[in-house]
Design goal:
343 residues, four-stranded mixed β-sheet, mainly alpha
Length: 343
Amino acid sequence: MAGKRGAARTEKQPDATPAQEAQPIALPPEALRYLEFVRVEKRLAARTLALYTLDLEKLVQFAQGVNQPLLALQNAHIRRFVAQMHSGGRSGRGIALILSGWRGFFTWAGRQGLVAHNPVQDVRAPKAPKPLPKALGVDDAVRLAEHEQPNADPWLEARDNAIVELLYGCGLRVGELVGLDVIATSDAHSQGLGWLDLEAGEAHVFGKGSKRRSVPMGKAAVAAVQDWLAIRAQPFGGAHSPRLAAALFVGRRGARLTAQSVWLRLRERSQLAGLTTPVHPHMLRHSFASHLLQSSGNLRAVQELLGHANITTTQVYTRLDFQHLAQVYDAAHPRARRKPQDD
């Protein structure tokens, strides 16, 4: 467990003060024995071992602050240390990683008969606040969708335009997008692939939990896909070319486009369109949901369109909507703009 935890450890420790740099904390013998154990038995990398050492130095420093030997620390002490780190600005993830290191030390100490119980066992880090999904403003989303690059390859331009219209206009996940076929077939159905019905203006996709759903396509999305289908097969000599996959979106060699390729193309397109934020596929899905909710206020409909099994997953977009309303209020309402007079 120590090796796995260490491999993912990237958060930096807080900068040391000059006094700490001049007088490094001396670790007790049991801590040094543990570090030797993980170095030899777990074969930790030098960087990971250094992080474990820093965590133990922090624990020793805390123990000195409450006048307790390292092995005499109790559950209440550890909880106190967690509270101190949290109030000092340490993130929940950073605290969790430190606790993991401490827990490993006391687990080892228990096996050596040095402690009767592990004081870190039931201590958990504070939960990190769930960040709001990143969504584009309406103007930026439209700007990206309508962007035209002069002298661009018409084949790539048509493909990328259709991709943006489906991601933003239908709220598709990138996996659902690249899983679309040109037409519906029994083989595609058994493989969990989707398709478009342009005549009906619907996208049939295979989403999370192996659930199929149908999403309406707007006129812009239908037109963009039609423009793409008109030239999709040209580089391969026709739609029946053996080099051309059945996928709706293909790359230069005719194979199904990958999610990573869509990420890269969207990032490039957003930069060319002059957007300050690099755009990724899920950002367009978030934008679809946020803008739809702002206009309609129909949370249940947005849930169905996104394919969320639980409406609580969709409710995060109400926070985005409230943010938008709060910004409008702050910018427009006279009581919001007026600064209170000093007494």
